Structure formats: C-alpha cells, structure tokens
DNA sequence: ACCGGCATGTAACGGGTTACATGATTTT
DNA sequence: AAAATCATGTAACCCGTTACATGCCGGT
C-alpha cells in the first residue's frame, strides 16, 4: 500500500488537489493513521494521471495560485478496489518521543521533562484538531475513524497526566508488588 | 534517529544479540513505538562494532546456534547521549487497517468485517503481550512506557467493541445532529 | 518589509524492507 | 517428516523524505 493508493483513496471522498490531500493527512482528523509529504504525493498524482486512473482540471482562484484539481476515474476506482483486496499490513509506528522516554536513563531530567511536555502537548493539539466539528456531513465509517483517533488521543493524554510522576519524580518510589 | 541509535539504546538495558534486539521491538512490550527488521539491525550492529561503540562476544549455547552478544562501550554511551540531545521527531504512523476502514466505501462488507476483526484481534494480542508480568524488575520509566502501551491498546479495544456498529451495520443509522 | 499560507514541483540521497541464503535443533 | 524457533547475514530494490526551487497574495 503506497502513496499512489493513498491518493487514489483520498479522491474517492471527492476531488482534491495535491496540496489538499497532503493537508488531509498532515493536519486533518486523519493524520493519526497515515501521512505523506509533497515529495511523494505530487509524483504519485503525476503517475496516476499518466495511467488515466485520475483526471486533472486546472482551477484558477482569486487571490491564490491556481490549483490542479484531481478526480478519480472509473478505471481508477477499479484499480483501487483491486489494491484494497489484500490483507492490510500490520501497523508501523515510529515514535522517537517514546523511544527517548524508554531510554530516559541516558538523558538528563531537564530534557526528559521537555520531551514529556512536548509529547503531551502534541497529543492535546491532535485531540483538539480531531475534535473540532466538521462542516461537512460525515459518513459513518469516517466517523468511526475520527472517533478512534479521539479515543486514542484521550487515553494517551489521561495516561500521561496521571503517570507523569513515574517518569519525572526524583524520588523514584516504586509501587509495592 | 536511525536503527543504529535504536540498537545502541537497547544495549543500555543490558547485553543482547541482534536477534534479541529484534524480538524486543517486534514482540516485546515495546513493540508499539518502534520496530526494525534484521536487514537493518545486523548491519547497524556491524557498523557500531566497527566504530567501537559496542563490543562483541561470541557465546556458545547448547542445543542452539551460537550467538553474538553485544555490549555498549563508554564511547558508545557518549555517542548515544549526544544523539538523544535533539528534539524528537513527531510520531510516524502507518496503519493500513485504519486506511482501509477509512476507505470502507470501496471494499465489500464481508472484507471490511475481516479487516475489523483482524485489527481488533491484533490489539488484543498486543495488549496481552504488554500485560504479561515480566520476570525482571522494571525501572519506573520502562513501567511508564509499558503502561502507556496498555492504556492505548485498552482504549482502542474498548472503542472498537463499542462502535463496531458504526462501521458494519447495514442500516446506517445516523445520530441526529 | 517580512512572514506565513497557498500552491506545485524536482532531484538527490538515504534508509529500511523484502527476499534470499544457510543451518541446527526442537516441537508437532 | 514438516514446521517452527533460534540465529546470522547480504544485496537489490524501492519508496519516501529532505531540501531545494519558485512565486503570488494577504496580513502585521
């Protein structure tokens, strides 16, 4: 499952430009399960267009640069359906923040607190972003995805708030076993 | 933060072989925030050894192949501390399962249910794995990491169980807004 | 005057995965 | 007899990120 599939999939939700697709997975409520940079999205759209899996229409905007609006074709729909037929690969996560917390012995307390606070702040931001009411009507399965993100972020925030002491208390009291 | 840093960091927890490091991030309680394959770990260890950031000792075992046990050197400790000084990059997640759920319109109900069930099962497995009591004494910050994983997995499982209907009910009843 | 947001792209570089190769031993 | 686990390693390949390049418009 590569970025081409991601772009194709995004376009089943409606027309969009490369810029908009990027925002969807960088800032939007769906940022928690996938993301991609311009350097992969624009070339992907180029190839999809070449293979006629999508169409492109240039749209002039006032006060802003033109944009290229892409839409999926029937052929693209078919290819997408085919690509989605295989079993999904297991999740791949890479969290440097958690790695640093895990390796906390090797960093000083000051920095550890910075990492912790930054991580917590990032979750609060993500939660806020995923929680802001959308203007559009949301389909049930998108609602499911959004709610899933909310649930995860909330759990993370709560846990971090309640267990900060485990990490940052100088007197490392241990729970009696 | 690359796999070399990961290996170096792992070795601050104690000596280990490449095989053991892989298991730590593939099966162990820390599988949720990072992982790496042999194809990256073995070369990484090779380079670290070449740079004298780690040492290697071959250990014969009965009934099993020999293994190469690596340990971090003072120089390695220094390099690690240095590498951990920068601000951690934001988390990178790639969940094909959630992407498929998000694109549920493009797959048939039967497969969607398979994806859902598989995803839920994988979370249950992970939770079980992260919850099994360790034989070793755990440092507070490792405890924090383990607890974090538990909290996230639990939240995911609960959410999925309670909202399966959002995704799989044929009668897509919507909540009144 | 400058910065941030909108908008599209490219090219080099690197990093890691996948697949292959090998082999002993234990479990089924 | 086959499959799974332990154990190490290599090499090709590919995908994606980073950084660069460009430019307009609106707000401060």
Count of helical stretches of chain A: 7
Q: What amount of the residues of chain A lies in strands?
A: 5-15%
Q: What Rg of chain A do the Cα atoms give?
A: 21 Å
* Secondary structure: number of strands of chain A: 3
What is the mean pLDDT of chain A?
90
**Broad structural category of chain A:** mainly alpha
Low-confidence stretches of chain A: 172-177
What is the string of helix and strand elements of chain A? HHHEEHEHHH
- The N- to C-terminal Cα distance of chain A equals 45 Å
Plain-language structure description:
The structure is a homodimer of 177-residue chains. Chain A is mainly alpha-helical and 177 residues long. In chain A, 55% of the residues lie in helices and 11% in strands. The first copy, chain A, is built from seven helices and three strands, in the order αααββαβααα. Chain A has helices at residues 3-11, 18-24, 38-50, 74-83, 96-102, 109-131, 140-168, and strands spanning 54-61, 64-72, 92-94. In chain A, strands 1-2 form a two-stranded antiparallel ribbon. In chain A, β1 (54-61) and β2 (64-72) form a beta hairpin. In chain A, α6 runs antiparallel to α7 (140-168). The longest helix of chain A has 29 residues, at 140-168. The first copy, chain A, is elongated, with a radius of gyration of 21 Å. Mean pLDDT of chain A is 90; it is low at 172-177. Chains A and B meet through α4, β3, α5, α6 and α7 of A and α4, β3, α5, α6 and α7 of B. Chain A binds a DNA duplex (28 and 28 nucleotides) through residues 2-3, 17-19, 36-40, 42-43, 46, 61, 63-68.
């Amino acid at each position: 499952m590569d970025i081409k599939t991601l772009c194709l999939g995004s376009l089943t939700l409606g027309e969009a430009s490369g810029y908009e697709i990027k925002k969807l997975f960088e800032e939007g409520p769906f940022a928690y399960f996938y993301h991609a940079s311009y350097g992969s999205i624009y070339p992907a759209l180029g190839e999809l267009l070449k293979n006629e899996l999508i169409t492109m229409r240039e749209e002039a905007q006032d006060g802003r640069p033109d944009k290229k609006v892409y839409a999926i074709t029937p052929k693209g729909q078919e290819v997408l359906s085919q690509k989605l037929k295989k079993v999904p690969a297991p999740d791949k996560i890479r969290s440097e923040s958690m790695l640093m917390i895990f390796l906390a012995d090797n960093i000083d307390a000051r920095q550890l607190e910075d990492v912790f606070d930054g991580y917590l702040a990032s979750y609060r931001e993500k939660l806020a972003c995923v929680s802001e009411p959308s203007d559009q009507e949301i389909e049930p399965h998108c609602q499911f995805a959004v709610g899933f993100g909310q649930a995860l972020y909330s759990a993370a925030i709560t846990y971090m708030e309640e267990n900060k002491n485990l990490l940052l208390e100088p007197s490392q009291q241990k729970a009696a076993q």
